[in-house]
Design goal:
CATH class of one domain: Mainly Beta
Strand content: 15-25%
Distance between the termini: 93 Å
CATH topology of one domain: OB fold (Dihydrolipoamide Acetyltransferase, E2P)
Helix content: 40-55%
Shape: globular
Largest sheet: 5 strands, mixed, barrel
Structural class: alpha+beta
Number of strands: 8
Strand order of the largest sheet: 1-2-3-6-5
Length: 212
């Protein structure tokens, strides 16, 4: 066989081996849980991201004057108005209605967790939906970051993914990772064997603003 033919055969064999190696490496990578999870996270962001959602909604400066539970807070603005605000992006065990004993216990823990951090402290908030009686749903930032992250990371709440679609990719990935850490560690709502009824108790359904 001439040197030219030998060189061509060697080149073809090298390409085949390279392709097989790449395919095998890709298959190996896909079997790694961390890599598969990362791919799934990016896929979720690709399928659900809405970066322009709520972009035109104004942010207000206020102070948390009361925490009802891990889902609901009272925020007061400098003009003196008080708003009852449901924290979007998370779901904590509710105290609005009596459910299971675990729901009550963890609901109290979530309330205390929020109180220790944001009660009587300045925050920024964005009201997405607001009724005539100043009940609304919105987002709260404390110390320059969303309150969702510490709530989820501590296991005081789980993510409500349908309400974080407008967050940046980096923030969403951080929230996903925080929730997984809480779940793997069995913290809060992820404790093994707890009985939590996730029916959302909505204080606004009564049309009566609880006393501050």
């Amino acid at each position: 066989m001439s040197d030219v033919k030998k060189g061509g055969a060697f080149k073809k064999a090298f390409i085949v081996i390279l392709l097989l190696g790449l395919a095998g490496g890709g298959w190996w990578a896909w079997q790694q849980p961390a890599i598969r999870q990362q791919v799934e996270d990016y896929r979720w962001i690709h399928d659900h991201a809405q970066p322009d959602l709520h972009q035109g909604v104004e942010w207000w400066d206020g102070e948390i004057v009361k925490v009802l539970d891990g889902n609901w807070v009272y925020v007061k603005i400098k003009e003196g108005f008080v708003y009852a605000l449901r924290l979007r992006g998370l779901e904590a065990p509710t105290l609005a209605i009596r459910l299971s004993d675990d729901t009550l216990t963890l609901g109290q823990e979530a309330k205390t967790f929020l109180e220790e951090r944001i009660l009587k402290n300045p925050v920024r908030f964005q009201s997405i939906e607001m009724s005539d009686i100043r009940y609304g749903h919105g987002y709260v930032e404390w110390q320059g970051a969303s309150i969702i992250l510490p709530m989820v990371e501590s296991g005081m709440a789980r993510l409500k993914r349908s309400e974080i679609t407008h967050f940046s990719r980096e923030t969403i990935l951080e929230l996903f990772a925080a929730e997984r850490r809480a779940k793997e560690a069995g913290r809060g709502v992820w404790k093994e064997g707890v009985d939590i009824n996730w029916t959302v108790g909505d204080y606004a359904e009564s049309n009566v603003v609880p006393g501050v």
